[in-house]
Amino acid sequence: MILDILNPHFTALVKGASQVAAEHDYAVLLVDTQENAQREGQLIETLRARTDGLILAGSRLSDEELVQLHDPERPIVTVGRPTAGPPGVRVDEYTAASQLAGHLIAQGYRRICYLAGPPFWVDTQREGGYRAALTRAGLEAQVIRATSPDVPGGEQASAQLHQAGELPDAVICYNDLIAIGLMTALSAQGLRIPEEIGVAAFGNHPLAPYLSPPLTLMEMPSQHLGESAARQLLGLIACPQAPEAPEHFGVLRARHSTRRRS
Length: 262
Description:
By secondary structure, the chain is α/β, with parallel strands linked by helices. It folds into two domains: 8-90 and 221-247, Rossmann fold; 93-219 and 253-258, Rossmann fold, CATH 3.40.50. The protein has helices spanning 8-23, 37-48, 63-69, 93-106, 121-136, 151-163, 176-188, 222-238; strands at residues 54-57, 76-79, 88-89, 112-116, 142-145, 170-173, 198-203, 216-219, 251-253. It has a six-stranded mixed β-sheet, with helices on both faces. A three-stranded parallel β-sheet has the order 1-2-3, sandwiched between helices. It comes from Deinococcus reticulitermitis. Residues 7-240 form the Periplasmic binding protein/LacI sugar binding domain. GO terms for molecular function: DNA-binding transcription factor activity; transcription cis-regulatory region binding. This is LacI family transcriptional regulator.
């Protein structure tokens, strides 16, 4: 189960899971929950009786609901939602965000805004890492929540930034889709990137290197997450006491959208 089939992060994740499943003679049924927790809960109840196991990628259920779903006889693996319930795979989002903010600070940016996403574990960890990096540098944090984690949400975020007062020097976006929308809106307003405002994001959008300017990313290992989640689920199907999956890490891809300020 994924949140948005149009998001390249989930596309790559499904590719990884499908490859591992095929190697073990399993088929993958793909379900798009459309960022809807109620729809997700209903689909889980329907599919658990018809499948050997479920992977929940970016679940919008509450921690309490996820804990209640834990059942070794009907295994579930989460991606990016560690809880006391079902086991899962994740990226060290806190460190990734700290490194990305540190890169912007090293490039000379001082007023750095975090354009947040949906308030779940991934976003909380990213905001925490961002705040820690700014605190170490003696800088003030500014957090604005995007209206949606997609391109339209990024376009609307441009107005949110202007309404908040003085524009920041740079913006770290929750994901690359938000960043693409933001860059489009800022450019339409005549603002030059990175000369007047830098933009960076988390993600692995295949077009990021080809945008104008090319987008700096903390690249997420989406396909590897899918592979790891599938291996863990297959392990749980074979043995309910299968070990936890290893933690994954992002990789900084510095590009022109955060070029050093003179």
